[in-house]
Amino acid sequence: RSSSVFAAVDLGASSGRVIAGRPVDGRIVLEEAHRFANRPVRTRGTLHWDILGLYRGVLDGLRAAGAKAGPLTSVGIDSWGVDYGLLDADGVLLGNPVHYRDSRTDGMDAEIERALPARELYGLTGLQRIAINTLYQLTAARGTHQLETARRLLLTPDLISYWLTGVEGTELTIASTTQLVDPRDGTWSRPVAEALGIDMSLFAPMRRPGDPAGTLLPEVLEETGLDGPVPVTAVGAHDTASAVAGVPAGREGFAYICTGTWSLAGVELDAPVLSEESRLANFTNELGVDGTVRYLRNLMGLWLLQECLRAWEAQGDPQELGPLLERAGKLPGLRSVVDAGAPEFLAPGGMPDRIAAACRRTGQPEPRDPAETTRCVLDSLALAHRSVLADAARLSGREVHTVHVVGGGARNALLCRLTADACGLPVVAGPAEAAAYGNVLVQARTAGAVSGGLPELRALLRDSLELRHYEPTGDQASWARAAARVHEHGKEAACA
Ligand code: ADP
Ligand code: LRH
């Protein structure tokens, strides 16, 4: 079956890509067909996704995948979580989808708390309290003409899938990022929707990874030059679900860190943890491929560095990532650290100044140049990885012996080394395109080109990849002291 070709559409917050994957001689071989920038657009004060530009990139990518890799056996789509488009009664998109970093969700925490106390909400959804959640966005949109006119809500990958096939549906793993799904049975939560006044008829029927999701429309075949029929297969439509499926772990106790725009650090479980302790530690229970639970916390991730790079460029001081990381790697570590999980870093703009201000506020030296700021960001991320993985192990009762770092950050050797040192655990880095691997594997299994559960699929991945290994070095005491420092600052901020 080496003639099977699976196209993974993977839309990340910083770039979209279409990657062709095929099983060859017991390995999975990926070939990038097309990559395109994902640049948000602000109009009249609201930050939007350029959804049609992204869809254009998907069509170009499918054309390139067909041209490079041959006839497509199927297509699978995954994207970042939580965001959605609204359709009217004619199936037409109402406005441009709003970006989760838009400030419309400011103050929604209190609104939601009034309707449904946080403790109860956590028991019903198991989701981390974070303003990006669809629930916060829908609460902010209450009463708008757009929401009142809408007949259907489709999350980003489901919207792309709808445009490609004409079929409306919602894939389970992406639905689980809304804070409107019960993680115990994977159904829409009526109590949450009712408490917040959300019309449940907006939601499309649920499908699971591996389910059929339609076939490419004739107009799409024409635009992409593909020969039909080409089925679309539901994959882990949340990029983090596909990325965790694409973690090349063995049966040992493992944790994962999906490091791209965000750092998603946690463990894979069979059932959600909905305890009060877990809620207070702000852990999320998103749903994964094959009935798994992604028990993790969202950290600000390489967004901090992306935004610094953007700011330096705008100030006429552009930095190249490679040399910048090299300089940062030579600096003394843990000089200043910030809380890489703090909501204060969510919004775009002025990131180097905001990081410097956080250092100043907490009585630490301010980074003086791009290399020092980069070192502060990476030390802070490594430190946050340490805290989250320790909490994940404690709260889930899982032992963690190895940390798998996947996503674009797996290419950042300094981040991987610091994470190994901070966690005091071996780090296995790669693949950078874990979401595409997870996406392709689910499609390939559905088509009968590979078989087995997640352990067998991951074994196939290990045979396909060259992974980099980082052993922990240095003393744990300095990381423990830095962690205590961040913890103290967090408590002071909470009291202020
Ligand atoms: P997303 O899916 O959220 O768009 P990615 O997983 O593509 O993000 O990761 C993008 C990030 O990966 C970049 O912002 C950058 O920090 C990091 N990255 C990508 N390539 C490299 C590289 N060659 N060296 C170091 N870091 C890299
Ligand atoms: C990573 C991610 C993450 C969050 C955020 C919105 O790309 O999907 O898991 O949900 O984006």
UniProtKB/TrEMBL annotation:
Residues 255-446 form the Carbohydrate kinase FGGY C-terminal domain. Keywords: ATP-binding, Carbohydrate metabolism, Kinase, Nucleotide-binding, Rhamnose metabolism, Transferase, Xylose metabolism. Coiled coil: none annotated. Transmembrane segments: none annotated. It comes from the Bacteria. Residues 7-246 form the Carbohydrate kinase FGGY N-terminal domain. SUPFAM superfamilies: Actin-like ATPase domain. InterPro entries: ATPase_NBD, FGGY_C, FGGY_Carb_Kinase, FGGY_N, Rhamnulokinase. Belongs to the FGGY kinase family. PANTHER family: SUGAR KINASE (PTHR43095), XYLULOSE KINASE (PTHR43095:SF5). This is Rhamnulokinase family protein.
